Amino acid sequence: MFDLSLVDILRLLPAAAVGLAAGVLSGMFGVGGGLLTTPALRLILGAPALIAVGTPLPVIVPTAITGAIAYARRGLADVSAGIALGLWGALAAIGGAILSDLAGGSIVMFSTAALILFMAVDMIRQAFGSQRLGPRPMENHPRRAFALATVGIVTGLYSGFLGLGGGFVLVPLLVRWFGYPIKRAIGTSLVAIAVLAIPGSVTHFYLGHVDLGLALSLIVGVIPGALLGAKFTAVAGDRAVKIGFAGLLIFAGVALLVSELGVFA
């Protein structure tokens, strides 16, 4: 039996609330949820930097699976491409997790913030610029396998290194390089994340970067949140989804920079 004190319960409740919010954002934008949980664990719950990086990964797995199923049922996911991306990224995620341990918490956090803000700018350009995309979805392209392998490996490295599902990199790449509509990119991203987050989770756990109590509390909220978020995106316009995705990236990137720079310390 579990013997929880009042202090334990008070600690679990905000973690579950963070999980719910992360699940909604995961279902809406295909980002796995770590994009919110890493800053929230650091800023709201006061977790050490590497715990904030590692703990979201095992939470991402059920979140991504839930969201991926919801998108696939609506025909908004390229399941075969998502599985290929996830498998290629899985091994790379282990290397990324090891690199994060060597680099240290502050470097990981600054790297996360810089990459998030870069992707936000690119998504804003896509939302308000020309609607011309890159090549059409590559179902029959002769270099499709090579492109999927390359993008999967890059995504896996960032996923393991930054403790994120990789969707914040993968969704813009699928839109710009593969020509996927934004909703199809989100659904495909969730399929990939469900696969590639597993080895990164195991590696971060082995390195001592996972707080199991926090992870379980987050999971309580993420599954219903992912279902709710997927429903929101299914009825939203493509431009609105891109703007919302960019806004999420900006918020998370700035929050991390503020935290690591000690602006309000």
Instruction: Give the proportion of residues in helices.
Output: over 70%
Range of strand content: under 5%
Average pLDDT across residues?
78
- The structure class reads mainly alpha
The total strand number stands at 0
Determine Rg (CA atoms, Å). 17 Å
Give the overall shape, derived from the CA principal axes: globular
Uncertain parts = 131-135
Q: Helix count?
A: 11
Question: What about the largest sheet?
Answer: none
Order of helices and strands: HHHHHHHHHHH
> Could you give the distance between the termini?
40 Å
Number of domains: 1
List the helices and strands and how they pair.
Blueprint: H1 6-29, H2 34-43, H3 49-54, H4 56-73, H5 79-103, H6 105-128, H7 144-162, H8 167-176, H9 182-206, H10 212-235, H11 238-261
Helix pairs in contact: 1-2, 1-4, 1-10, 2-11, 4-9, 4-10, 5-7, 5-9, 6-8, 6-11, 7-8, 7-9, 8-9
